[in-house]
Specification:
alpha+beta; NADH Oxidase; putative fmn-dependent nitroreductase like fold; four-stranded antiparallel β-sheet; 5 helices
């Protein structure tokens, strides 16, 4: 029990292929609640969220997203593997003039880990046509889209690579995604840098 959170964190990978199974609304609400409770600089709490799970609206949103920059367009989710829901991370500009990006990162990670704990895969996306999405979703002028979290039950199992010197993720001959991460020994210093 005490290692569950750690195991969840180290198993997390961005998921870009999804089963076409509806996510219960309770799971989405639970994830957004986890995002709401993330740390907030000066406790300004400028983030708000828009959840979308209607299939027709999800299809419209998908056309304004761009996926997996290193593998674009090969890793765009094809028909039958697209997200079944999106969580928009919105900045309420009436709450702050200078949104702290650390709030956004902490909130997004809480949402992603909450989803993962319920068996839901996610991909955090900032490469969007935000102006088009604002119009489609009728988002008021005092809100700004920061990013979205695309989600659904995973239809892939990306492999962690710790021995690679690459930073770009890649697909193998079978289409499995490989995600390199720098080894701990190369990034952790103890008490002094040299």
């Amino acid at each position: 029990m005490k290692h569950q959170l750690h195991n969840l964190i180290i198993s997390r990978r961005s998921i870009r292929l999804f089963k076409q199974k509806k996510i219960p609304l309770g799971i989405i609400k639970k994830a957004v609640n986890a995002g709401r409770l993330a740390p907030s600089a000066a406790n300004l709490q400028f983030l708000e969220y828009l959840a979308v799970n209607k299939p027709q609206l999800c299809e419209k949103i998908f056309s304004f997203t761009r996926w997996a920059g290193y593998l674009y367009p090969r890793r765009m989710p094809p028909e039958g593997k697209k997200p079944v829901a999106y969580i928009f991370i919105l900045i309420n500009k009436a709450k702050t003039k200078q949104p702290d990006s650390r709030d956004i990162g902490a909130s997004a990670e809480n949402i992603i880990l909450s989803l993962l704990s319920q068996g839901i895969g996610a991909c955090w996306i900032a490469s969007l046509d935000k102006e088009a999405l604002i119009k489609i979703l009728k988002i008021p002028k005092n809100y700004q889209i920061d990013s979205i979290i695309a989600c659904g039950y995973p239809a892939e199992n990306p492999k962690l690579e710790t021995g690679s010197k690459k930073i770009k993720y890649w697909l193998d001959a079978k289409g499995r995604l490989h995600v390199p991460k720098r080894p701990l020994k190369n990034i952790l210093y103890l008490n002094k840098m040299k």
